[in-house]
Every structure is written in C-alpha cells, then in structure tokens.
Design brief:
The radius of gyration is 18 Å and the shape is extended. It starts with a helix and ends with a helix. It is 79% helix and 0% strand. The chain is mostly helical and 110 residues long. The protein has two domains: 39 residues, no CATH class; 63 residues. Helix 2 packs across helix 3 and helix 4 packs antiparallel against helix 5.
Length: 110
Amino acid sequence: MEQRDIDTIIRLSKEGKQTAKIWAEDYPELDYWEVYNVINEAGEQSALGVKRTISNRLNDLREMAQNKNNYAEEDFSKMIDEIDGLVNFLYERHKANQKKLDCIRETINS
C-alpha cells in the first residue's frame, strides 16, 4: 500500500469516518483488516469504536460493582483510567474537528 493511501485512511479516520465505511467507500479493493490495521497501527480509533469500548467498560464496571468481592480495587482503578483516557481522546478529537470546521466556515464566509 502506498504512503499516500495510508495517509488518506488515517485522515478519514481522524475526521470521524467509520473504518467499515473507509473500506467500503474508499478502498474496497483492500481487505477490511488491511484498513483496520493501518488505523490501529497509527494509534487511531473511530469515534464509533471508542463509544463501543466506553459502553462495554461501563457495563463491565456495573457487573464488577455487583460482584465487588470478586475484584480488587486495582481492577476498578484500571477500568476507570481506561474510560477516562477514551473520553479524553474523544474530547481532543472533537476540539481538532471544531478547529477544522471554524477554518472552513471562515473560508466560506470570506
């Protein structure tokens, strides 16, 4: 795969496009897992993927809270730290996208 394609896949992911849509709409000639690996190796995640992970972790916490005796305090702390990191990831991505939108609006309105 060419670097230009890798850069495009990463950019689309950063813009919030789902991995499955990047594959189906932009790179159908590639295997889904090739697109997924490009995004994953770049340290990127789709917003949908992060949302699903947060939901799963919250469900895990709910289950852990119901069975407190089976889990150490450290388990709760790790889970909470992971959720916090994912929420911060979404917030930073939102700020970056907001700056892009502001630039686009400024260009359109000038």
